Amino acid sequence: NNEFPLLKKHNSEYGGLYFKNLPPDVQEKYLKYNVFVDTISEKDDSIIYDIFARMNSNAANINKQEIRNAKFWGDFKTAVYTTASLVREDFIRYGTFSAKGFSRMQDMEFISSLYILAISGCTTESAAQIDKYYKDYDNGFEDVETITNHIINAFKFIEDISRYVEDIFVLKNKSYMYDLIGYYFVGNNII
Q1: What's phi and psi for 59, nearest 5 deg?
Q2: Which sign, positive or negative, has the C-alpha torsion 46, 48, 51, 56?
Q3: pLDDT digits 0-9 by tens, 32-59
């Protein structure tokens, strides 16, 4: 609506201009630019302030899993976080995630993927798909105990394998670990 000019600190060439004053090719670039939007219905102001402080900080842009952490409180999230805490020592021992990875909840997102694998088998995964599982299983997750046991048993399987391998470098790569767990699931008729 041409209500706000571009700021010079954001773009020295077009600073001070309104959208209507930009060249047509630049206008088109702006119109095609993807903007990430997520509605947060959290009622606790301190959590909302923390989310926005992190989103607006140059040092710590919030990632999808951190948004899920703030947005969901139900059964799926609880299962993921409980399971992640049970296998955290395995991740540390194998070097699957760095300290920064843990702080950015990469382990939680990985465990989310394992739950999705156990529920739906091999699927194409995206942030939107993970969000869907958090939403669909937020208010009820009937098979949670069974699936959690399958995931824990898969980690025991990996531990058994690691006893016979001197260099467990493949477990440092979460994709290889995911494949091993998938192999375990297939071998045990879980998927």
Answers
A1: -85, -25
A2: negative
A3: 887 766 677 777 766 666 666 666 555 5
